[in-house]
Specification:
The complex is a heterodimer. By secondary structure, chain A is of the alpha+beta class. Chain A contains 15 helices and 21 strands. Helix content of chain A is 35%, strand content 19%. A seven-stranded mixed beta sheet of chain A has the order 5-4-14-15-16-13-17. Chain A has a six-stranded mixed beta sheet with strand order 7-2-1-11-20-19. The termini of chain B are far apart. By secondary structure, chain B is an alpha+beta fold. In chain B, helix 1 runs parallel beside helix 8 and helix 8 packs antiparallel against helix 9. Helix content of chain B is 34%, strand content 22%. Chain B contains 14 helices and 23 strands. Chain B is globular. Classes of the chains: A alpha+beta, B alpha+beta.
Chain lengths: 513, 501
């Protein structure tokens, strides 16, 4: 058997500590030793305060107790994302972590809805999704088991304080024996012929040698970008936002079990409810507004009092063309950036780790493993990218320059085809790899104003009155069952009952580390 | 609401024409679709067999065709797998086990690779429920599988009888068989306007289906038709169909035996054994092939063997204008992996999925073409892997097959399997991880390493998991019905005619 691979993780944000947690829990100790280099001087910003349901799987896999995690990170539950003013001003829809209808069918439940609509029976699609109905009612409960149960048709995620999550993970991982090294990188030594990274020299003079480097250095991309110079693929022509102001505010009213994203003049504003405060931010494009105007707009839009001064973050949409090059694998922001519109930042870290596990290299760093990893990540990134672009492009807003630009811009052919098929006949492509499944595409298409011109012809086999009865019954059942659910606030209070205090509040931005 | 397609005309022959008719009748008949068929002269020889993947069972469920009727009429024999022999390695059975559910961290094969590296001598095949059932002439099914080992079976069918069964069933279901033969096809503006029958009757339709087989009777009339040959990836170009006597105890597998210029398949049927010799004409004459058959068949050749050409490939655009080609008219594969009917099923499900909703049909055609071509290419890769991985060294046909480049997709599949025992799967795949794995391992492609997570399992647990699977299979297989008992239990008893012998 080969000697264990000496892994050096550079950076201790969410990505770095997730990597340490996953590798230490899910790889045998005989395969690798893990050290993590980070500096207390470099602030953690924390990737994503809003997560996707995959987060629960990650926690379960590495052995994190949900209730403890929620207490420590002041977390709330999340059933989806509400999008306001996206397709047109005054609109609101929820992208749920669940399906529409009772079960997923190959054609899609929504075909029934379209057929009814074409016959003049206008059902509210949202009332036919359990997860959405629960979100709208500010209610939460854990999903039931049993496929025939309407309360089994969803999953859930969390809103949490990402800085607290990183700190929580650090403690969890250090308990498992992962060594943390304090220090800032001064220089990176590379092998003369292969170009692989050999060691990091810290400002203290300490030299950290390793076989495999995981670059979690954030936007700086110290290893993949700076040292190995892997090219950047710029996606800003499709996703023009390049700045964000972030500010926490006091909670007002009930805690919603969903994230809110409101389209503004030059971008969009997030609202992420935590137990103790609300995270807010305005993601905008300097091509269409100024930093000062954006700051003003954000502060004017807060529901509760601001709890700190807004903080500015700079970024660019795109990614390094390869996430794994030689003996460096970049995770999270050092590999690419997609705005947190669909809470994909932590997911991208997680899926990269899950793809890494079966491909984890020996000390000889077989490039074939990197090639397969990069192939899988290309699919993930590109499919998420298309889904994000859809939000900007599918709009009838023409009240500001940004929206006029996005409406008119040319989008990737892969996305044009998807939109065309949905508009024409309500067809939604299903793919093997990649995050978003048909219910996600459906909610955005319909939520942003696209209604299929035709339904699938097989729907005509069913008598209309029977179809309408079925939809009415479903809507009623969902309404009734949702009323039986406890309020989200009540569930959190109960779940976090023994909340120990003292964990320092921190200022979380919500997406970037 | 007015339907775009109120009348569909299928021009075709044999099983493929009738299965599409039945599927369309089933899918849209209730909303008034009129399904008509113009039958072309059959190309099926008396000796022909249809070897079908387990997907045939689901297709029969969809069209509501009773399995008993199939087994009875088509003298069908359940097929738990195919046994590959003389491929330059020890014979192996490729069965139809299902892979571990997605989300399950590790495929069983990963545990096997580690055990194998540590010297465990038991071949992978013995951990396949389907393969072990096949070895003992037994039929695996989900209902007999409390441990969830997961294997199923396809069928070998009498080709002419199966087509007749489908035809009779279709006519009973309201499919309209037009009298007369095809005499003319009228094309206008890149679409089929009508066809004329020998009676002089002109038949128009909103949609035309070409189920004529590889000749593409209808679709080749349309501008834009073209064919992408796969002869560089699937080297055989001749097909010889023959027949011999019944095997004494019906086996649950077809035998696929390689020879110097291709391979010969033996397909058990209830009353005879069908033979299919597939070869490359540069390396053997039909006479050579015929002469060599006697060494592999259980009895003498019966009747006249029939020779035909095999041209694997796919139409550039299986759907043009208002004309949709299905089955062999869309894509021709090698008979090696029993994909003939399956490819037709893939076309049918895509056609139903993208059934036109407006007269233009452009976006439906585009999606159909993309999906059908992708699917066919993935199936082609599965078949071409057999040729690529052969270990018959020193024979020109096989040496060339090994040296030949494969598609980039298959290249990646082979690479990752060799490196880690990992399966790369793309969109529109028929075969799952287990199928690819058993084929690769069967041909002797041994992974150099395995998923590191296997080492998380303590050695004792690892051994125990492996032994437990052997025990489960060993206990379950003898409880399964034999092929003979399956056939007699499934057949619909025919009322004994008043014998006057």
């Amino acid at each position: 058997m080969n000697d264990p691979v000496e892994v050096v993780i550079l950076g201790g944000g969410t990505a770095g500590w997730m990597a340490a947690a996953a590798l230490s829990a899910l790889l045998p100790p005989s395969r690798c030793t893990i050290r993590l280099v980070e500096s207390d001087e470099i602030g953690i910003v924390g990737v994503g305060e809003a997560t996707l349901p995959h987060m629960k799987n990650f926690n379960d896999l590495v052995g994190i107790d949900e209730a403890e995690m929620m207490r420590r990170t002041k977390a709330t539950f999340k059933l989806g994302i509400e999008f306001r003013d996206w397709g047109f001003k005054g609109s609101s829809y929820v992208h749920p972590f669940g399906i529409h209808g009772r079960a997923e069918t190959s054609l899609g439940f929504h075909q029934k809805w379209v057929r009814a609509l074409h016959a003049g029976h206008e059902f509210d699609l949202e009332a036919l999704s359990f997860a959405i109905a629960a979100s709208r009612a500010n209610r939460f409960d854990f999903p039931s088991s049993g496929v025939s149960n309407i309360a089994s048709t969803y999953s859930y995620a969390y809103h949490f304080d990402a800085s607290l999550y990183a700190a929580f993970l650090r403690e969890f991982v250090e308990r498992r024996g992962v060594r943390r090294i304090e220090g800032k990188v001064q220089s990176v030594a590379r092998h003369q012929t292969s170009g692989a990274v050999e060691s990091l020299t810290l400002e203290s003079g300490a030299v950290i040698a390793g076989d495999f480097f995981i670059d979690c250095s954030g936007f700086r991309s110290l290893l993949l970008g700076d040292a190995l110079d892997v090219a950047w693929d710029d996606w800003s022509k499709w996703l023009p936002c390049d700045r964000a102001w972030a500010v926490p505010s006091a909670n007002v009213g009930e805690i919603t079990p969903y994230t809110r994203s409101t389209a503004l003049e030059a971008g969009w504003q997030w609202r992420i409810p935590l137990q103790h405060r609300t995270g807010n931010g305005y993601v905008f494009s300097t091509g269409f507004t100024s930093e000062e105007q954006a700051r003003e707009a954000l502060l004017n839009n807060l529901e509760g009092d601001a709890l700190a001064e807004p903080r500015l973050l700079r970024f660019k949409a795109g990614r390094r063309v390869r996430s794994w090059e030689k003996n460096v694998l970049a995770l999270g922001l050092s590999s690419g950036f997609l705005e947190p519109l669909e809470s994909t930042s932590i997911y991208l870290v997680q899926i990269a780790l899950m793809q890494l596990l079966p491909l984890f290299p020996d000390r000889n760093m077989d490039p074939a493993l990197a090639g397969e990893f990069n192939r899988r990540m290309d699919l993930e990134y590109e499919r998420i990218r298309d889904f994000l672009i859809l939000h900007y492009h599918l709009t009838s807003r023409d009240d500001s320059e940004l929206w006029r630009y996005c409406k008119a811009m040319e989008v990737p052919e892969s996305l044009t085809a998807k939109m065309q098929l949905f508009r024409h006949r309500g067809h939604i492509e299903r793919y093997r790899d990649g995050l978003f499944t048909p219910p996600s595409w459906l909610s955005v298409f319909v939520g942003q104003g696209m209604v299929p011109e035709h339904h699938h012809p097989s729907l005509n086999n069913v008598p209309l009155d029977r179809l309408v009865e079925e939809l009415e019954a479903l809507q009623e059942e969902i309404g009734d069952r949702v009323q039986e659910m406890p309020k989200h606030d009540a569930v959190i209070a109960r779940y976090s009952a023994e909340a120990p205090t003292g964990a320092g509040d921190s200022f979380g931005f919500g997406m970037i580390s | 609401m007015t339907e775009t397609v109120r009348r569909v005309l299928i021009v075709g022959r044999d099983a493929q024409a009738w299965l599409i008719a039945l599927a369309l009748q089933r899918a849209f008949g209730a909303s008034g679709l009129i399904v008509e068929v113009v039958e072309l002269p059959s190309l099926v020889a008396a000796s022909d067999v249809l070897a079908a993947l387990p997907s045939l069972q689901s297709f029969h469920k969809i069209i509501d065709l009773d399995e008993g009727a199939v087994v009875t009429a088509a003298r069908a024999v359940p097929m738990a797998g195919q046994r590959f022999s003389d491929w330059g390695v020890a014979p192996f059975i490729q069965a139809y086990d299902s892979a571990a559910a997605p989300g399950a961290a590790l495929q069983f094969a990963q545990l096997w690779v580690k055990a194998h590296q540590k010297g465990m001598p038991v071949p992978f095949e013995e951990f396949s429920f389907g393969a072990m059932a096949a070895r003992l002439s037994r039929v695996p099914s989900e209902s007999d599988d409390p441990a969830g080992l997961g294997a199923t079976f396809g069928y070998n069918l009498e080709a002419s009888a199966y087509a007749l069964l489908l035809k009779a069933f279709a006519v009973r279901r309201g499919v309209n068989l037009l009298a007369g033969t095809l005499s003319d096809i009228k094309v206008e503006d890149g679409r089929i306007a009508a066809v004329t029958l020998s009676s002089g009757q002109q038949v128009a339709a909103d949609l035309f289906i070409d189920a004529s087989g590889s000749e593409g009777t209808l679709i080749r009339q349309l501008p834009g038709d073209g064919f992408e040959s796969w002869s560089d990836l699937l080297p055989c170009d001749r097909l010889l169909s023959a027949s011999t006597s019944r095997l004494e105890n019906l086996p649950a597998f077809s035998e696929i035996r390689a020879n110097k210029a291709g391979w010969t398949g033996l397909y058990p049927l209830q009353d005879r054994t069908a033979i299919l010799a597939v070869f490359k004409s540069d390396f053997a004459s039909p006479q050579d092939v015929l002469a060599s058959l006697s060494s592999v068949t259980p009895g003498p050749i019966q009747g006249d063997p029939v020779l035909s050409e095999l041209k694997p490939g796919v139409r550039n655009a299986p759907w043009i204008g208002n004309c949709v080609s299905v089955g062999d008219a869309a894509a021709v594969l090698d008979p090696l992996d029993a994909l003939h009917l399956h490819m037709a099923h893939v076309c049918v499900s895509n056609l139903i999925n993208f059934w036109p909703v407006s007269p233009a049909m452009g976006s439906e055609a585009k999606e159909y073409n993309r999906n059908v071509r992708l699917h066919a290419a993935n199936l082609r890769d599965f078949e071409s892997a057999h040729y690529k991985l052969n270990k018959r060294e020193g024979e020109p046909f096989w040496d060339a097959a090994r040296d030949r480049a494969v598609s980039p997709g298959l290249e990646q599949k082979l690479l990752m399997f060799r490196k880690r025992g990992l399966n790369v799967l793309f969109d529109e795949e028929t075969f799952d991880e287990h199928s690819w794995t058993s084929m690769f391992l069967g041909h002797g492609l041994m992974p150099e390493s395995y998923d590191p997570r296997v080492d998380l399992l303590a050695e004792q647990d690892h051994i125990e998991t492996i032994q437990a699977r052997l025990r489960q299979i060993g206990a379950l297989v003898p409880t399964l019905p034999t092929v003979d008992s399956f056939v007699s239990a499934t057949s619909i008893p025919v009322k004994a005619p008043a014998t006057a012998s």
